[in-house]
Each structure stands twice: as C-alpha cells, then as structure tokens.
Amino acid sequence: MKRLLFYSGLIVNLFLFLGCSNPEETAENAGNSEEQPFSAAYLEGNPPEEIIDEPDNDSSENLESVTESRSNAITNAVEKANPAIVSIAVTSSRNYQSAQEEFFRFFFGEPPREHSSMGSGFLISEDGLVVTNQHVVGRNPNDITISTTDGESYDAELIGSDELTDIALLRIQSDHVFPFLEFSDSDEIIVGEWSIALGNPFGLFNDGKPTVTVGVVSAINRDFRPDPNNPRTYIDMIQTDAAINRGNSGGPLLNSNGEVIGINTFIYTGGTSSGFVGLGFAIPSNRVEKIISQLLTSGSVVLDYDPGMEFTSMTEQLVYRYRLPYVSGLLVTSVNRNGPAYECGIMPGDIIVRIGEERVSSKMHAMALLREYEEGDHMYIELLRDGELYQTEMALRQKVTAE
Predict the structure, then answer these.
(1) Which entry of 87, 92, 120, 135 is annotated as an active-site residue?
(2) Which of 92, 120, 162, 166 is catalytic?
(3) CA distances from 293 to 130, 287, 395 (A)
C-alpha cells in the first residue's frame, strides 16, 4: 500500500512538472528565449501571415542564388558561340582504291560511287563565310550542305582551300544575316587557361545543338606530322585536353571570352586506339586569319615574297646518286641570280637543314615554314656545303627582274 501511494505521488508530480507549470513563469521564460513559441493559431492549422511569407522569400532567393552560381565564364562563352557553330555534310566522288574495283568499273561501266563525310565549322561573317578544315571538304566536293543551330540547312560553295595548312573557306548561298564568331590573338594564349571545343562529333548535330567539351590549353607551339603517308605538316599547334573526336574537325576552340583561338583539327592517340586520349590539337587563330584572307582574295595561298630558289626533299635515291650526306633537309636545285637566295650566298647543290629555329624534314615541311615569313622579314638558314656547316640570313623581297 505504501508503495502504491509512492508511485501515485510520483506520477502526480511528474504531471505537474510537464503540463501544469505556473503561466506567469512560462511567459517569463518565453520572453527570455531567443526562439518565439508557436501560437495556438499555428497549432490549429492557421499560421500567422509573417510565418507564411518568410519561407517563400527565402526559397525564391535561394533558387536565384543557385541559378546565378551555375552561370560562369564557360557557360557564357558557350551561349555566345553556339549560334555560330555549323555542321558540314560533304558529298564527293570516291576514287577507286584497288585493281579489282577498277576492273569492274572498266568492263561494267559502274558509275563513280558517292562518298559522304561530316565535320564541323563556324561562321566568321554575317554574310555566311564559314571556316573549316580542308580534310573535311576534300579536294573536289560535289555538294556541300551546312546546317545551323536554328535547324536550317543551306547549300554552300567552296571559295578556296589550302591542303598544306588544312584550312578551307566556304560561303553559304543565302541572303540571310548570320551570327558569327571573332578571332582572338593566338600569340596571347596562356598555357593552363580554359579551352572550349564545340562541334559535331559522330554526327550528333541532328538536334541542332553542337556538342561542348571543356579542358585547358595543355601546350602551344607543337609541330606534328600525324600521318607518315601524308605530306601535310602541322606547325605551332595548340594542344588541349578538351575532348575532340571524329566529327569535331573544323570546329572552333574557344577561350573563356567566347573568342576563337584555334580550329580543332586532329587527335593523337599514341597508337593505343582511334579515340580521344587527352591529346587534341588546333590550328592557331593567327595562322587561320592569315590563310583565309588569301583564300578570300585569290582562292589559293601563295608566298608574298620570292625566295629566289628551287629545292626538293632529300631522298635515298638522291643520296646514292650524287653521293650526298645522309641527312634530312632540302637539296637546292636552282638559284635565281636576281633573288634573295643568291644574294645571301646560297648555291645549287647546297643542302638546307634548318630554317629559322626549325630542323627541316621535307619539302612540304619547308613550305609550311616559309608560310611563317612575310616580305621584309629576315630568314635564318643553316646549310651543308662540301661537308661543312654554314649559316646565312636571307632578306625576303620580291624578285627583281634584270633589265
């Protein structure tokens, strides 16, 4: 009985402690608290007006803050450049590659087969000038179709191309006013800065939106001859780790300002696969501008000076036939008496091994190096003559015709 009375008293005290406190003490404690208690109206499902408004305002502000934080230099650059990116579809006659194919064509009159290819490009003027790689359009395209991000397709004509630098210039056949991109000075590129590649890898441009990949400028001034069977040599290329794949060729490489710093051209796989492994290369914008200005003017690219000599690549046949040193370089075959080469002491039979700071590997390589100079420049040349190494400097100018 005593135990029952003890527990009853304990329960009563506990009840008084939890629910029956002095109202004055409760109000006093509430006034000293940092958090205001919920009112009876809120507990009954009718919250006060100020409590309803605060969460809504905070939610709106938070959403706006999150949206602003997602927008950055890269998204701004992509938004700026997107309308000027194009997809290029080319149809050309395919050459017969084997004797068997030629045999059937000769006897059965099989017409030339059509070969289709796709690539990327970008607009550089409001009247529809488009820049891309020469290997995208080929040498003799039959039809060129350009698709823009607004879903429209246009026929285009080839104004000119340069196989050596792998640059082509097209014009859309339309009176429409187009958005376009501007070039940046590629001499101002900073290794480690953002690089943004836009294009049409694997033909994914069907939805009208280019693919965007982002990386950094990994290196500059890279020289490559990616295909041993192709004489094309790439000089002073921009290296990037922004993903570039088949179909990206001809698309722009942008900086964080949305300006073109180069044309995405090829990838280096190191013999591991045919896919991207982190080594992509772009033609620098300054070279692109120089080439397309000549293509726009004359449809072809020529030197604006005359070196005053002719040369050919060193080969094993030349080495054995004329008992020449076994070195890579250029064999000078003729020299014009009224040209810069003669004035700086170059003679037929000399072997040019270096132009500027570059070791010369072939005639095509030399032509690419000569493109880097203009009339009025001085070109450093290193050559072999009778087993001795000589240096000279050529003042580049137009050929003077003898009276």
Answers:
(1) 135
(2) 166
(3) 13, 10, 24
